[in-house]
Amino acid sequence: MKFQRLHFFVVLFAFSFISCEEEKVDADDCQRELLLCTEEFKTILLEIVDSEGNPVVLDDFYTFYDSRKKFEYEYNEAQAIEGIYPVITDAEIDELEREGTTLIFVGVKNGDNLVEHQMVIGHDCCHIQLIEGEANIVISE
Q1: Are strands 69-71 and 60-66 parallel, antiparallel or unpaired?
Q2: In which element (H, E) is residue 17 found?
Q3: Which residue of 36, 43, 52, 69 could cross-link 89, Cys pair, CB 3.0 to 4.6 Å?
Q4: Counting Cβ atoms within 10 Å, is residue 50 exposed (0-12), middle (13-18) or buried (19+)?
Q5: Strand pairing of 84-89 and 69-71?
Q6: Considering just the CA atoms, what is the radius of gyration of the chain in Å?
Q7: Quick one: average pLDDT of 4-31?
Q8: Are the CB atoms for 117 and 104 separated by under 8 Å?
Q9: DSSP line for 25-75
């Protein structure tokens, strides 16, 4: 009788480990209401400098991932001073695949596309993250 109880507890203990397997989060359904994310608001930035290391001042810029979807952000004086431009923010996390979406940052100067920079950006269900591509580029004007 004592042996049967021990056997029962061993089997019960083994099943408890199997049933505690970590639940996997689907790439398209992060169930954000169940996640504990920081309240930090992330932005992927692109620094653009010329061959001498000076910031490149663009007339306009935007990011797109296909011919139908374009993300535009307000231009401010700090960007002109430092040559740092937003590519995408946490506000657009639902537009991105978790494992990564290819985006193209376009920088316009004097009516021409001066910069066309490809990046792959994904997310961890809480915040966007740069997966592939450079965050700093050097161009010759």
Answers
A1: antiparallel
A2: helix 2-19
A3: 43
A4: middle
A5: unpaired
A6: 24
A7: 45
A8: yes
A9: PPSS---GGG----S---EEEEEEEETTSPBPPPSEEEEEEETTEEE----
SS3 of residue 107 by DSSP: strand
With beta carbons less than 8 A apart as the criterion, state whether 101 and 14 touch: no
The Cα–Cα gap between 106 and 47 comes to: 13
Q: Which two tokens stand for residue 120?
A: 């792959």
pLDDT of residue 1 exceeding 60, the answer is no
Question: Would you state the structure tokens that stand for residue 83, as one six-digit string?
Answer: 């040559």
Kindly report, residue by residue over 49-83, the tens digit of the pLDDT. 999 999 999 999 999 987 678 888 877 776 767 89
The percentage of the chain sitting over the pLDDT mark of 90, rounded to a whole number, equals 56
Q: pLDDT band at 111, cuts 50/70/90?
A: very high
Q: Measure the CA angle with vertex 44, ends 68 and 126; round to 5°.
A: 90
The mean pLDDT of the chain is 80
Count other Cβ atoms within 10 Å, centred on residue 56: 21
